[in-house]
Amino acid sequence: MNAHGKNKKMKMAMRVYFRMLKKGCDPDICTYNTLIHGFLKMGLFDKAWALWSLMSDSRIQPNEVTYSIMIHNYCKKGKLDCAMSLLNSMAPCNLTPCVHCYTPIMVTLYKLNRCLEVDEWCERMLESGIVPDHVLFFVLMKNKPKGLGFQLQLCLLMLQAIAKNGCGLDCSSLTNSDKINSTLALEQEIELLLREIARSDLNLGNVAGGIYVSALCEGGKTEAALDCLENMVNAGCVPLLFTFNSLIKRLFQDGLSEDVKSLIEIMQNWGISPNLETYLIMVNEYCKQEDLALAFGILEQMEEMGLKPNVAIYDCIIACLSQQRRISEAETLFCRMLENGVDPDEVSYMTMINAYARNGKGVKALHLFEMMIKNDIQPSSYSYTALVAR
What we know:
The protein is mostly helical. It has a domain at 173-273. 72% of the residues lie in helices and 0% in strands. The chain is built from 22 helices and no strands. It has helices spanning 2-6, 10-22, 29-41, 45-57, 64-76, 80-88, 99-111, 115-127, 134-143, 148-166, 183-200, 202-218, 222-234, 241-253, 257-269, 276-288, 292-304, 311-323, 327-339, 346-358, 362-374, 381-388.
């Protein structure tokens, strides 16, 4: 069922479900979550709710995963009120929302420029005893003011919540991050807290360490970030892939591409394989340097490994080709993406529409715009502007 769902073959997935019933196998919550996720990926909310009803009729209660799947997909469709209502309905069902329920809501609020509400939701989440993770930190960091001081203050806030909510540590003796006036003092406070978290729970130490490394990398403190990685390992932590990805991006930004190769080798020696995010970082940096040969090299490497590039990776290369007015090659790569079963997003369509429009191919631009609407992708003002500009 999971494989059929990933390939958007939900009729096949449902056949497996009915075969289970026929053979007397009782579906469990994992079965329903898999099917619900598959239908939501296709935007079929009515089918997902029908399964929700079937689940309830079978006296199987939705769990935190069910809610997080629904919330994520409602947010993806821009139906924020529905997502918020679902989250608020969890407490009466004796369910505690996890960080994965809150994060997509905050992402959507940022997209709608409702930043003050993000702070309210974040405060509500932390006060309810939920442990934040590195994904939430990354979302918040990307939308906060730039500057090492801001990033370290946010890092300290997240680590205090991990220490209190995850490790049960008493943080009352810690200095309030708002009252620390220097980045050096913030770093010292964070490092002290990080050691305490790692002593209490190595898994949470991995998360906390990844957050700190990410903050340092974003602030341009590469050496300090590498030192933190070494300290984490010495403390018995196993750094997250997120931690390595933060360092890889920073090293690229510092022009240290050879060091990136060394870091990836170290990572692989520890049994940690690059993921789609790793390859996206590499492709994005190569495209920024307009080195399309290396960007295409990553694409070929992924395909040789049997790892399907995601739409964001294709978007980077298509955009770079478009900027260089290599429209025919961009068009070829767009078609290759479709052939490989990767669905274009609005960025893909917008990039190609803009490329066609700027090069006198208005008919193709209009055709692609119509295809985007047909595929249930709501055009933004940027897409309309690109089309009108033709």
